[in-house]
Amino acid sequence: MPEIPLCAQAGRKPVANWTGPKVEVISNPLCSGCQELKAKLTERGIAFADWNVTTVCGRAMAAWYGSPDVLPAVAVDGVLLDEPGDVVKLNGVSRGSRQGP
């Protein structure tokens, strides 16, 4: 079994024993919806870990959460918000940038 990168170990399950960041955003710097969401979280004083999918750690975290293909993706307490519209409802931002091929 491959080693989990150190940056991805925060996402180790079980969720009941979650020790990672409270809020995680899986994003891409070219995704305008990602930038909107991060700006709104920052404006509201909500701390978050930003996992940029253009980096090794960002791709590792995206893989840990099942490689969501639509960004931004958000996890709260280690649980990916995956219901349609959850991220949009979170802050009223657009969503729809694909991660890549």
Description:
This protein is an alpha+beta fold and 101 residues long. It has one domain (21-92): Glutaredoxin (3-Layer(aba) Sandwich), CATH 3.40.30. It contains 3 helices and 6 strands, in the order βαβαβββαβ. The chain has a 4-stranded mixed β-sheet with strand order 2-1-4-5, with helices on both faces. β1, α1 and β2 (49-52) form a beta-alpha-beta unit. It is globular, with a radius of gyration of 13 Å. 26% of the residues are buried.
Entry keywords:
single chain, 101 residues, alpha+beta, Glutaredoxin, 4-stranded mixed β-sheet, two-stranded antiparallel sheet, 3 helices, 6 strands, globular, disordered N terminus, disordered C terminus
